[in-house]
Design brief:
The complex is a heterodimer of chains A (324) and B (291). Helices cover 14% and strands 30% of the residues of chain A. Chain A is α+β, with helices and mostly antiparallel strands and 324 residues long. Chain A has 2 domains: 2-165, no CATH class; 178-314, Cyclophilin. In chain A, strand 13 and strand 14 form a beta hairpin. By secondary structure, chain B is of the alpha+beta class. Chain B has 2 domains: 4-82, Gyrase A, domain 2, CATH 3.30.1360; 87-289, Beta Barrel (Cyclophilin). Chain B is 31% helix and 25% strand. Chain B contains 8 helices and 12 strands. Chain B has a 7-stranded mixed β-barrel, surrounded by 4 helices. A 4-stranded antiparallel beta sheet of chain B has the order 1-2-4-3, covered by helices on one side. In chain B, a hairpin with a 2-residue loop joins strand 8 and strand 9. Chain B is globular and about 55 Å long. The two termini of chain B are 39 Å apart. Classes of the chains: A alpha+beta (324), B alpha+beta (291). At the A-B interface, strand 15, strand 18, strand 19 and helix 4 of A face strand 1, strand 2, strand 3 and strand 4 of B.
């Protein structure tokens, strides 16, 4: 008993906080791209913060409930409807067995988190219910949802309280342009000083190739590289390196043209130079960027990265306090 | 070799052991990452050795970035004194070179290739100055390979041939990556061989296919029941050329769950390998095919 998928949306998947510990084997952490929203959705329905939820991108699914439950939708502004009646985002609401949850068109953001009391109870794989489609691992049969799928729910804690909501001041959405803070490093020395300056001065746009593996950007000037004799094993293109690991959030620029930021389903390594890494505090924001969103990269140092991290943790704590 | 340390945002430390690939750089990366694992530093969540570099993911709320950096530097100093001896395994991987499935795929993506008029094997043989594809295959399946990194996607091994640099095979990647690669394709890019663990996009040249599954998320295949990923960094691989009947037989064995890879335990010494590469590689072959 739980929910039945009437229509799956565009790419709806089961996600929790991910499966750390296997990146050295090419299995990425996966999990919600916007973890702040995922945690908040769970808290609203009385779940553990890390319970499995549905992550819907751009287009919501249509779900029929086969049992009573409490539901909350956070993240993108993807307005929920219950049997056609509008419901609020960032708020808990009751659903009765037999009712259908559907969604209106996306107003802002990119990914909505649908938490259901008890959590999605698909079998964990390597300690997590997160879906990693490239490896056919976790979630519902290792893939995005399809019409006709039935998903089981776990035992609800009983702590759900309908009508509770996350105060608007505690919600966070990307600005215009979106600003992503970057700690330069890794192979930053491979590009010229001018290129480094341009990278931060230019306004980029999210490309259509933007998914859970990575977000691609267009519109800035191509980067010029510092001359070199290619190191053995690196390859002849100036953007090549001897294949190495890729940090989550790292920014690679194949051929010096289109930056790609790796996200939670990252390829764990490869042969392209990276000029730096988006700080952890801003990773959630990337998951809410739509294609064509103007984006600026902002250079910060480690102290600023840690301070942003601290602020982010503080905001999460305020959400916990508000919902306790 | 000159080690370079860099922060990858606030949650990673990236360490380039050497700018260029060598067995020495790989061994240094492997011994440092082994030392990091053994030292059980609080806050470290991922330890990823790569070909000539490594990466640590950590929680900066538990250990300050500069403190972890200092720990890694001290482990590097210790690793430099280590003997470069590892207990590992030698694995025989059967390869059906020039198979119909990678051939069909490479023909489909010919316009993305440097040389649209030849196959990936013909191209690789020519630019590496072999007189024939057969001679190229003999070299590819001759000297054994080290698994120097596992990654990109689930369980995909990068392999570096245990040969003099002058005998290393080098090929560029496709001009533009393919959108399709058959599962278990034996590929090549730069100085690395790989085996595609899953079907998907890829830019490496395609030489053949193995019947031996190396990733099984369902954990149904006997030798992947304990863990879904077969390879680990430090494994030694020897390719064995097989023909179509042998390939079909192996696939049938895999389906009947009767396929068992040939694996032998082995203690590898980098110093001994350096002093007599051909002799040492021969010894690896003898261990593999002895009792």
């Amino acid at each position: 008993m739980g929910i039945r998928v009437l229509s799956p949306g565009l790419a709806t998947s089961v996600q929790d906080l991910g499966r750390p510990g296997y990146y050295h084997l090419g299995i990425p952490i996966s999990g919600g791209m916007d973890r702040f929203s995922l945690r908040a959705a769970n808290l609203l329905v009385g779940n553990d913060e890390g319970a499995a939820v549905l992550e819907a991108v751009f287009l919501g699914p249509e779900l029929e409930f086969t049992q009573d439950a409490t539901v909350a939708v956070t993240g993108a502004d993807l307005p929920p409807k219950l049997d056609g009646e509008p419901r609020e985002t960032w708020a808990a609401f009751a659903v009765k067995a037999g009712q259908v949850l559907s969604f209106d068109f996306l107003k802002s953001g990119a990914r909505a988190y649908i938490a259901i009391s008890g959590g999605i109870d698909t079998p964990p794989a390597l300690g997590s219910r997160s879906t990693y489609t490239l490896g056919a691992l976790g979630g519902h049969e290792g893939r995005n949802l399809m019409a006709g799928d039935a998903l089981p729910l776990g035992q609800a804690s009983g702590g759900a309280a309908e009508g509770r909501s996350v105060p608007a001041k505690l919600r966070r959405a990307p600005g215009t342009p979106a600003e992503l803070r970057v700690l330069t490093g890794l192979y930053w020395h491979r590009i010229t000083e001018d290129s480094g300056r341009n990278f931060f001065e230019d306004t980029w746009k999210v490309a259509p190739e933007a998914d859970r593996i990575g977000y691609r950007f267009r519109g800035g000037q191509p980067l010029s590289f510092v001359d070199r004799v290619p190191p053995f094993g690196a390859g002849s293109d100036p953007s090549n390196i001897v294949d190495s690991c890729y940090p989550y959030g790292s920014i690679q620029v194949p051929g010096g043209t289109e930056p790609i930021i790796l996200h939670r389903d990252a390829v764990s390594g490869g042969g392209y130079f990276m000029l730096g890494t988006v700080i952890a505090a801003d990773m959630d924001l990337i998951g809410q960027l739509q294609p064509n969103t103007p984006t600026k990269f902002v250079s910060v140092d480690m102290a600023a990265a840690l301070s942003a991290r601290h602020d982010r943790a503080g905001l999460m704590q305020e959400v916990r306090n508000a919902l306790s | 070799m000159k080690t370079r340390y860099s922060f990858g945002g606030d949650e990673h430390i990236f360490v380039e052991v050497d700018e260029e690939m060598s067995l020495d750089a790989f061994f240094k990366s492997l011994s440092i990452t082994n030392a990091v694992r053994e030292s059980q530093i609080k806050g470290v969540t991922e330890i990823c050795p790569a070909n000539a570099s490594y990466q640590i993911k950590y929680d900066p709320d538990v250990i300050a970035p500069d403190d972890l950096l200092a720990e890694l530097k001290s482990l590097e100093a210790a690793a430099e004194k280590s003997e470069s001896i590892i207990d590992t395994r030698i694995i025989e991987v059967p390869v059906f070179y020039n198979d119909p499935w990678t051939h069909e795929t490479l023909m489909r993506f010919r316009e993305r290739h440097q040389d649209p008029d030849s196959t990936d094997l013909e191209y690789a043989a020519r630019i590496n100055k072999f007189t024939s594809v057969d001679e190229f295959i003999a070299a590819h399946s001759g000297a054994p390979w080290f698994v120097t990194m596992v990654g990109f996607v689930s369980g995909l091994p990068f392999m570096y041939q245990m040969a003099e640099r002058t005998h290393q095979i080098e090929v560029p990647k496709y001009l533009r990556p393919r959108t399709d690669t058959p599962k278990l394709t034996v590929g090549y890019g730069g100085c690395f061989a790989c085996i595609y663990s899953v079907r998907g996009a890829g830019g490496y040249q395609m030489f053949g296919i193995t019947p031996m599954p190396i990733f099984d998320p369902k954990q149904e295949i006997s030798y992947l029941r304990d863990f879904m990923v077969f390879f680990r960094p430090g494994d030694i691989v020897k390719f064995k050329p097989i023909d179509r009947p042998a390939y079909d037989a192996a696939v049938a064995d895999v389906e009947a769950d009767k396929f068992a890879p040939r694996i032998r335990e082995f203690t590898f010494s980098l110093k001994e390998h350096h002093s007599d590469i051909d002799g040492y590689n021969k010894k690896i072959g003898e261990v593999l095919h002895g009792n």
